């Protein structure tokens, strides 16, 4: 197995997680009696605001199976996860958060579930409430349920950052997923079978979440836009319904006018019709513009991530007395 951990603010929590994973680098037995081993732990540095880079360097120096992957700047959790997947070599790839919320002890049961059900992807299915506020937990449940309808993805309600993915699938998705693609949506495009495994979530090892409401809303909206064209179809249906209502309303108004039941002014009716029509048009244009924005963003060729060398060993980390000064020719 390869374990991929995107690291943004892991200075206080990453070492404890890696120490837990250390016991799995030797062959171990799953609950069903299968033999497995974590061959590498890939720590993807996503250029966070703390000293995570120093922690990653120390862990890589102390453990031969800990491999750092350095990104040129902060690209976000999904891009960092894909970068780790692209750098993996295991038969299976496990993705985990850095904050200690995901317990490595459940990697074995997740593998058993994958083998038993012949699944390409296994998502963790928490049996306890996430260690967040009531509002965030409820919003998360609502968002996942709405994604199932908006994208047509039956597995949208199961999306979770603690996942086990078949190595070939993980690396293939990392190779073709564009900058606008949502990781779990992209997995759903190619995975033959997706299932879940019950797990217990632990408390986060740090104070406060690394995600602000704006970031969570952005993740949700990107998953909707990249999940398919069902939202466009909903807008088309809305336009058709409004068109039928408008036609019926026109017939009613003509009949009432013939019956002398309407004054000549009719400003209220005109205003209502104008507002409904303009509102529907603006809504449709807004959704279409969002889809066009995603398409243009992908067509521009903006990289999803860029793997570079350790900045500490490169030009950014070189001492002044080691830099050769060259006179311009």
Automatic annotation (TrEMBL):
Transmembrane spans: 235-258, 264-292
Pfam families: Glycos_transf_2
Keyword entries, A-Z: Cell membrane, Glycosyltransferase, Lipopolysaccharide biosynthesis, Membrane, Transferase, Transmembrane, Transmembrane helix
Matches recorded under InterPro entries: Glyco_trans_2-like, Glycosyltransferase_2, Nucleotide-diphossugar_trans
GO molecular function, one term: undecaprenyl-phosphate 4-deoxy-4-formamido-L-arabinose transferase activity
Domain Glycosyltransferase 2-like: 2-145
The keyword Membrane is annotated on this UniProt entry: yes
BP terms from Gene Ontology: lipopolysaccharide biosynthetic process
One GO CC annotation: plasma membrane
Keyword Glycosyltransferase: yes
Family: Belongs to the glycosyltransferase 2 family.
Protein name listed in UniProt: Glycosyltransferase
